[in-house]
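Follow-up to my post from last week.
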Amino acid sequence: MTTKRLTGHIVLGVVLLVCTLSIVVKGLLVTVGALLTLFIFSFLYKDNPYYKFAEHLFVGVSAAYWMCMGFWGTMVPNLFGKLYPPMVGSVIPALKDNPPEPFMVIPLFLGVLLLLRLSSKAGWISRWALAFIVGTTAGLNLVRYLRSDFIAQISSTMIPLYASGAAGFNLGETISNSVIFLGVMSGLIYFFFSKEHKGVFGTGARTGIIVLMVTFGASFGYTVMARISLLVGRMQFLFDDWLGLIR
Amino acid sequence: MKRTVPLLITLVVGAALIIADFVPHRPFGTLGDDFSLYFDIIAVFAFILGGGNLVRVHIMKLSKKRKDWPFSIVTLAGFFIMLAAGLLKIGNPDDIKGDVAALGSLFSDLYISIFTPLQASMFALLAFFVGSASYRAFRAKNKEATILLVSAFLILLGRTPLGLWLTEGIPDSISFLELPNLANWILDVPNLAGQRAIMIGIALGVISMSLRVILGVERTYLGQDND
Amino acid sequence: MSNGQTTSRYTIERLQSIDRRIIFVFIAAAVIIPLLLGASLKEETTPIVRALFDYVDHLPEGSRVLLSFDYGPTTAPEIQPMVDAVLRQCIERKCKLYMMAVWATGHNLVGQTIEEILKSEYPQLQYGQDYVNLGYKAGSQGLIRLLVVDFKRMYSTDAAGTAIDSIPMMQNIGNLKNFDLIFSFGGGFPGIKEWILYAGDPGHIPIGGGCTAVSAPLLYPYYPSQLVGLMGGAKGAAEYENALIQAYPKFSNMPMAGMSLMMSQTVSHIVIMFFVVLGNVLYFIGRNRNASTKPGGEK
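User reply:
Got it. Predicted complex:
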């Protein structure tokens, strides 16, 4: 136990020494970034207070970041700047002479209702704002998904199963087109649960599983690729931006 | 008031946006545009609600001295420092009139030195866990799992320069067997078919759910009556 | 059961329940060692990336390209190389660059990209004439839907608060249909999918994409009818960089961020595949042993 604690202190001491040197050589921003990266990576050994510190800091900083971006990017120019332009004249002078738009009181009102969610007594009234958000999302999604993810996808699947070009019959494209057509059909059959997967329908469903497994395999491969890329990015930061070890 | 008004709002807003897609003229066209604008602004209030809720939860945790309460101080300190830096545009080269994220401002410095490493490292951790989980759980136990495994291997090999290097000696007549070509074929053909089947299924789900919401059949988003 | 059998079963069980930190060490080494060695491998551009590159390369001089930074620091290692490569190509094609974000985190990255690529590599470019930073707006799909109809209703100023109508390159922009190409760089929500659904399809506007590897397979059904082309993950970025170097040899001596990831990427893939194979071999040995030791057990 004592040896473990001693090792822990030695590691911490080395990290602090490197960080002190780093502040002098690389500056405060890079050093703080590197230190926080190490705090997060310390979770790989086991859960510890350094990781918890970084995790809690991340939550707080993230929430404030989104609030500030929303406030300056959208709320000030698009709500206050439209509702009563002179109000934002001191921060965005370009907007101060715009004509006011009184109807912008509607999103302000709904927004304030949404904030009442924080109140235990008047929380129910936030449902009005929530209903607006849900209604808008539903209205936006219905037509767009119907057109782009349903009709357009069916249309793109209707491809010639006998492919030919200037050079005549094209075996490769014929096979690919057939696999796409049969793959989509069998995949859809697999997701159709209103009929028992038996006989020809069952064969279709079983083919669908095979197609979906290939799809999931591709997704898995790409997921591994993505995660590794992010790690490489972090390592580049540590070993290049911070330590300057990469040529 | 608690249920009828929200259901009415959902119906009017949802229906107006659908009609605006087919009749993009007054009044539906403008109504659709106005609702989209209002939606964008209300989204910001949702950020504020999120921040407010975070503060409430951590203040409660602090006051009741729940497990790990000292870390709530870290969360709150991080929140208020970032908030002050952003809202007051502290250190902004163009003062209060400049871009909130202008390089050199405290907000930008906090983004670079705290937000970026924390967020990026948090996700980079997943690389280790993907490797460990693959070792423990990725088994060719049956035909389907074997297909998944083979497909994944072809992608992992074919989508790196290694795949090209391993099979570049293959004659042109059978070049489709080169690992990069096989990987491309998997992505372009069976993967496309599978993803399209899933996409069509999801689209049908979204369409039916949207209809249910607009028509007031689906009401779970309103929560309980006493909520 | 003999002692030998017991020992080998014990060994298999120990290997199966190996401390995960040992696997972590191997993965870390697979990433770090190639990075330190600075090695790189040959790349080839695949058709889906080539289609995107060629589309940009055939844009006439003065074309308006909208670049939406729909990502954050999390996925920047994958996406930023794509952004850099596309920016360089667009500038070579003398396109007008309009940069915005539907992700809040993208706002800061627009500023950083302008500083690191445009200002340092192309100091002759003028803000407002050649490129503009429009910044972030909230609203996701609601925002995109509105921009298709009326761009300036949301973007009444640029990121720095300059009136939009006083910016020369914004004079003839009424809505998204005035752009020759929209690039979305991202992968999450909102991202390429939302740009296709709410802008590309209803407005008949060409959409190009650069996304994380995780979301790349999900976007293949949109290509080529709804998506001009797609760069998926670091590999997609490296392929685009390869195409850029081939078309514009002046970039051949420039360090390319996407390509620099690929050696570590390759070695890490090998390590992960090794562990998957090892896990399976141990699993099958263990299963066969169990079956053979069971009285009357089937093999």
